[in-house]
Design brief:
The structure is a single chain. The protein is α/β, with parallel strands linked by helices. It has five domains: about 160 residues, P-loop containing nucleotide triphosphate hydrolases (Rossmann fold, 3-Layer(aba) Sandwich), CATH 3.40.50.300; about 180 residues, Zinc Finger, Delta Prime, domain 3 (Up-down Bundle), CATH 1.20.272; about 45 residues, no CATH class; about 70 residues, no CATH class; about 80 residues, no CATH class. The protein has 25 helices and 16 strands. Helix 8 crosses helix 9, helix 12 crosses helix 17 and helix 16 runs antiparallel to helix 17.
């Protein structure tokens, strides 16, 4: 950027107002900011005469693609009678064709918007006109903006002319969607990627323009506008134009913040400090205050995530603090946080915020959603990572005064018995609201432990804990070889889960409060509970069928079937089988067979016709 900013128009003061983005549009390569590499390449090419027939300019909105195309057309046709008569990038002095080219009205510089001229007929006009020499300039220059909007047929029609154009024709293309341009076109052009302008460079540019406009602007306001523009010069000038109108000649941070709905950067730093301390009440208060002043909840969280990123960068690249777009609070307090917080804590905060921002943006009520994100972040701020928790357990950092972990072997056993086990007690204990860890003594564990003596008791315990899958496996897949309190050896049936032993050991240990050893044995073992139940049911049904009375009923009602057998204590053989009590309508069926049969249907045996 040149030191002196000169408006692009020299019209009288009575002319209509022109927005800053047009008024301070660059007129030469010296006025371009942030594109030094492209300027050096073009300068060397022009000096050596290695001028290409086509250029492809790509980048996001507002980085100067169309403006650069016009400046390039001006450089190609730069001419000052008696002084300059060759292409040059040093075009600070206005030449014969310069003003007409920069205003878009030169007859030999044809600008076409491909968004509204997408067809092959439009390209055919270019091909036909390219055969004729320029009217007054050195080159006939075609500037095609948003070139990716051309149709496939239009691109194909342009290829031959683009590869071997007449000596007097040059092409300059501009696009925001470079991936949509065919590779056959890209290979025929020199490509320049116009990158986003750095925030610091953009902030200095805004200060110069504010000075040229005789407008006072706060440094924090400049930084906020530069960040909001996201590297786009045009966007930054549009925001500055609006801020000048809003502030009446003075642009303050409060003006920009209210206009854009941004959060106070200092308050964002305060918010970060409170959540890292686990102070939920203060964090929610700061969020509410920012919301009341017009800040959007998702923007607040986005700013908070940006500060997390800044602290992480300062931790690894301390020179990041020299960024001109940073406020003094961000710079000094960011360094302080970088020295105190670990990368793991910052990474976890970043992940929670990224997930939370998406939730807030889609939530029907953004403020409560943002509050829940801050609560989650505050609660997780001081939680150790899994490896840190393991190290703390091994070093006895969780000690609560009831003894330290034993130094025994596997399973925490040492000496004559099991060592203390970590128990997590829920509850909000302190400002962080996290769970408190303590070490339980073996005596306390013994008082709360559950003893199991049979496989049936283990099944009932699984049912009590609503683990249907494990209950099913215990009944149908386990052939017990040895069962005693704390130890189970079994032979699994074919098709059983290969991880069944591990699952049983973990869950029985968790449910009973004591360590269980579950092993797979080679012995056959007892039949499964399901197999024993089926055998008992079969025997009971056979016994019932051999009863003379039941046999007589089965002969009387061909097709009748014994469904289940009940015993005097009310149990059924197969708990999973449905019981059809009063399955038969007794009175109509036995109307002619005598009253002797009616007494059989007292609930002892159920039949199904």
């Amino acid at each position: 950027m040149s030191d002196s900013l000169t408006p692009s128009d020299q019209k009288p003061s009575a002319s209509p107002y022109r927005v800053l983005a047009r008024k301070y549009r660059p007129q030469s390569f010296a006025d371009l900011i942030g594109h030094g590499a492209m300027v050096r390449t073009l300068e060397n090419a022009f000096e050596t005469g290695r001028i290409a027939q086509g250029w492809m300019l790509t980048g996001v909105r507002g980085v100067g693609k169309t403006t650069t195309a016009r400046i390039l057309a001006r450089a190609l046709n730069y001419e000052i009678p008696g002084k300059v008569d060759r292409p040059s990038v040093h075009i600070e002095e206005e030449g014969t064709h310069c003003r007409a080219i920069m205003e878009g009205r030169h007859v030999d510089v044809i600008e076409m918007d491909a968004a509204s001229h997408t067809g092959i007929d439009d390209v055919r006009e270019i091909i036909e006109a390219a055969r004729y020499k320029p009217v007054s300039a050195r080159y006939k220059v075609y500037i095609i903006d948003e070139v990716h909007m051309l149709s496939t047929q239009a691109f194909n029609a342009l290829l031959k002319t683009l590869e071997e154009p007449p000596e007097h024709v040059k092409f300059v293309f501009a696009t925001t969607e470079i991936r949509k341009v065919p590779i056959t076109v890209l290979s025929r052009c020199q490509r320049f990627d116009l990158r986003r302008v750095e925030t610091g460079t953009l902030a200095n540019h805004l200060r110069k323009i504010a000075g040229a406009e005789a407008v006072t602007i706060d440094d924090e306001a400049v930084a906020m506008i530069a960040r909001a523009a996201e590297g786009s010069v045009r966007d930054s000038l549009t925001i500055l134009d609006q801020a000048i109108a809003h502030g009446g000649g003075h642009v303050s941070a409060e003006t920009v913040r209210a206009m854009l709905g941004l959060a106070d950067r200092t308050r964002v730093v305060d918010l970060f400090e409170t959540v890292m301390k686990g102070d939920v009440a203060s964090a929610l208060t700061i969020l509410t205050d920012q919301y009341d002043t017009g800040a959007d909840p998702s923007v607040i969280l986005a700013d908070l995530a940006s500060f997390v990123h800044l602290v992480t960068r300062l931790k690894h690249v301390p020179e990041s603090a020299d960024d001109a777009s940073l406020t003094e609070a961000e710079r000094t307090r960011g360094r302080d946080f970088a020295g105190k917080l670990s990368v793991r804590v910052l990474s976890r905060a970043w992940q929670l915020l990224m997930k939370g921002i998406a939730e807030v943006q889609t939530a029907p009520r953004p403020l409560p959603a943002a509050e829940m994100v801050l609560v989650r972040l505050a609660y997780a701020a001081d939680l150790p990572t899994p490896d840190e928790a393991l190290k703390m357990l091994q070093s006895g950092a969780f000690s609560g005064g009831e003894g330290a972990p034993s130094s025994g072997g596997a399973g925490g056993q040492g000496g004559g018995g099991p060592g203390p086990r970590m128990v997590i007690q829920g509850g909000l204990t302190g400002p962080r609201g996290g769970a408190t860890a303590r070490l339980a003594s073996p005596q306390a564990e013994a008082e709360n432990a559950i003893s199991l003596g049979t496989i049936e008791e283990a099944v009932r315990l699984a049912e009590k804990n609503r683990d249907i899958a494990l209950k099913f496996a215990l009944e149908r897949h386990v052939r017990v070889v040895r069962f005693e309190d704390g130890r189970l050896e079994f032979n699994p049936v074919a098709g059983a889960n290969p991880n069944l032993a591990g699952d049983l050991g973990r869950k029985l240990s968790a449910w009973t409060g004591k360590r269980w050893i579950v092993a797979i044995a080679r012995e056959d073992g007892q039949p499964t509970l399901h197999e024993m139940r089926e055998a008992r049911r079969t025997q009971a049904v056979d016994d019932a069928r051999a009863d003379p009375v039941v046999a007589a009923i089965l002969r009387t009602f061909p097709g009748a079937e014994i469904v289940d057998v009940k015993f005097e204590d009310g149990d059924v053989v197969d708990e999973a089988a449905p019981v059809y009590e009063d399955a038969l309508s007794i009175d109509p069926v036995f109307e002619d067979t005598g009253d002797w049969a009616a007494g059989i249907f007292d609930g002892d045996v159920d039949f199904e016709p």
